[in-house]
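user: can you give me the structure for this one chain? tokens are fine.
assistant: on it. calling the predictor now.
[tool input]
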Amino acid sequence: MEGVDKEKVQKVIYEMSKGSKYFENEQRKEALTKQKIEHLRAQCATLTDNDISHFQKVAERKMLELEASRDLSKIWLHTDMDAFYAAVETLEDPSLKGKPLAVGSMSMITTASYEARKFGVRAAMPGFIGCKLCPGLVFVRPNFERYTHYNELTRKVFQRYDPSFIATSLDEAYLNITSVCIERSITGEEVTMNISNCHSALLTRSMLIELLVMFHMSCQHSFTTDKVYLLHHLFS
């Protein structure tokens, strides 16, 4: 996130992790990565101009093949709930609103609220390091039964726009909104333009309003005519 003192965060993580199994494992991974980089550099050093020209042509042919195979007739919506677990906990306990919140334990943080992220606290970080970065960090134990309940509610909303939507996790999904756009005479380009300009994005606003009314949570959307090439126009 913007405003986070990354140098300070990295220093705290280094000092707090030093000597631990996690630290030793990270050192091993870093050494392996450096070894791979040096190996690739050595390989590059042996390439001739003819080799480079050949591989460039191979890459260009592959790019043309991939471009020709893209299906641009569909309009996809990618939706990702913001700090989902933390948002659910705040909804269940309004006293947590505005506080730096971590869902997890001293061993590992599953999700951090945006208030906590301002201090450099993030998911997959040991909780004791999170406390060092943010002394006022509030911990809540994960409640996956609760998260699944709210996930089922979001899916009911998604089904109104795409009965065959693809869920990749509890808080993330891909929706094919082609039919909805046709029915409402809205093109994918118009939808993304409306979102980027924060004007009359009726399709996205109607879905977002339903989500906000239901959960009082925020949600991010991005659109594309090809799932592989997502256009990151976010609306929250």
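assistant: here you go. Strands lie at 76-81, 101-104, 109-112, 138-140, 166-169, 172-176, 219-224. The first helix runs from residue 6 to 17.
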